[in-house]
Design a protein that fits this description.
Largest sheet of chain A: 7 strands, mixed
Shape of chain A: globular
Structural class of chain A: alpha/beta
CATH architecture of the largest domain in chain A: Alpha-Beta Complex
Strand content of chain A: 15-25%
Strand content of chain B: 5-15%
CATH architecture of the largest domain in chain B: Alpha-Beta Complex
CATH class of the largest domain in chain A: Alpha Beta
Number of domains of chain A: 2
Largest interface: A-B, 64 and 57 residues
Oligomer: heterodimer
Order of helices and strands of chain B: HHHHHEEEHHEHHEHEEHHHEHHE
Number of strands of chain B: 9
Strand order of the largest sheet of chain A: 3-5-6-7-8-9-10
Distance between the termini of chain A: 51 Å
CATH superfamily of the largest domain in chain B: 2-enoyl-CoA Hydratase, Chain A, domain 1
Number of domains of chain B: 2
Structural class of chain B: alpha/beta
Radius of gyration of chain A: 23 Å
Number of helices of chain A: 11
Number of strands of chain A: 10
Order of helices and strands of chain A: HHEEHHEEHEEHEHEHEHHEH
Amino acid sequence: MDLKEWFASRQKRKELQENIKQPLTTEEYCALWTQCFQCRELLYTKDLRANLQVCPKCQYHFRVGALDRIDQMADAGSFVELDAVMTSTDPLKFFDTEAYAKRQQEACRKSGLKEAVVTGIAAINGQPVALGAMDFGHFGGSMGSVVGEKVTRLAEEATSNRIPLIVVSSSGGARMQEGILSLMQMAKTSSALKTYHEAGGLYISILAEPTFGGVTASFAMLGDLVIAEPGARIGFAGRRVIEQTIRQKLPADFQTAEYLLKHGQVDMVVERSNLKDRLSRIISYHDLTRTGPAGEPANGTVKSGQLTK
Amino acid sequence: MMATNEKKIIPLEFEQPLAVLAQQIEALERQLGDNPDLEGDIDRLQEQYTQLKKSLYVNLRPIDHLAIARHSQRPYSRDYFAIWDPGFIELHGDRTGADDEAMVGGLLTLGGIKMVAVGTQKGRSLREKQACNFGMPQPEGYRKALRLFRHADKFGLPILTLIDTPGAYPGLSAEEHNQAQAIAENLFELSGLTVPVVAVVTGEGGSGGALAIGVANRILMLEHSVYSVISPEGCASILWRSNDKVSDACQAMKMTAREILQLGVIDQVIDEPLGGAHHDYQLAASNLACAVVKQMTGLMKMSKEEVRRDRQNKFRNFGAFTEV
């Protein structure tokens, strides 16, 4: 070892030592641990993730991002994304305390997604489905032109491929920053679902914490079957708005999945760990190649070869 | 003349200068008997009044349109139905438990066309307002509308809807009876109807509660009506976290008839009498009738399938996005 090498290796050793000595930043440390919102238990984030974001102690269902959701539901490697690059233009040049364009950038940075829904074709236990998952972490999961368009296209894709349609909703409602155009997405998605319905499609809507406003009042409530996640809050108007309107305290479990089940609004409440299996079993009862408008012969079985990468 | 025209029209805040002038003219007119020289002054003031009235309504701010749209004397669905067709046959009930008075519907003849008409109703007196829930339908109201839409579809009757609602009612029982599903189902079923549907926003077009009877082949708006994804008060409190930014929210959301026409969401803006529909019910009703009959006549030339596809295509194209 000549002198030069010795100096170089000493430098390396020093850097290594410094790296080890450096404590975790608060952000990194916090990311390691997650406190359960319900039972306050401190959970190791990695364990929580491995447990599908469900508290192992009290079964509290944490919110799941769109990509994690797809990972949890689709067979490994089966998901092929559709319309991945679609982004919203700013039709109103909306400005409140900040420009909409800037808020969008901020939302993308936070969530790592381009929009509040991820859609594509996937397989669930080998059964091809059109799958969409909303992400509350992106702009409150709000529905603007892009969310409306992607859900519409997903329904169209499901119609032409004669495959079941599954959408996991999690949204604060319509996106105010796109004004009336956001509102119109409610009609656009509902109309696409009507066409899918008439073609004999099976649409399963899954309601995750939280689902409100324009999303509930359109595609989220239009499922042939509607499934809710335990504890998820689901409704049209927000709790605070209702309390202000009727000037009464609302029951504690108001607008929870269990409350909805009691009032006949959802078919079932299914724990996340059983969700994939339950979906797969439900789908097995519904042969989409047999149904269709006016005895129209089904155009063959699904080209499942397309669905695996 | 309608009842409200006999009553004095209540001036809005931005109309105050006009009201002051009118008072001055009135005062002078009262003194005219004792002092005939005042005639010149009255004429001058009258001139001023006409000028001001003309200019006042040219440059209205969005919040002024909102104020006119919400004017307590604005004609409501029942007023229009009564003026258009004294033989209007009202139909009641959702058939499953209630008759929501915030949603009025029935069989109407307009310009010789027999149709099913459905509209939201706000109510005039306090008792009426309470009965109508201030124009905010419950799920039962939307289901009543849906029943009438299905009836129309079965018998090939075109549908006219009049929209003037702050929104769907946000209440305990409304949620328990699945308000969201009631609205969603209307959107779903309206998109599949094979008869022409014309919707007119006559006052406030409040969010999903308005859209639930607004999925139409042609959407029209009265000149001073507004249509938005959320009430401006709601928007201001969420985005600005302040209750006194309502005017900014109105501006930002682009909710006036002309702005929405520019966005390509609606097909036509219908002129109102100067100052708003509440100044002249008859004129407002006949303007509206002309526009509706014209649109309806055009749509009635289409086949069932064409009508349906026309409506579906219209909504399919809404949205602003890029794919690069």
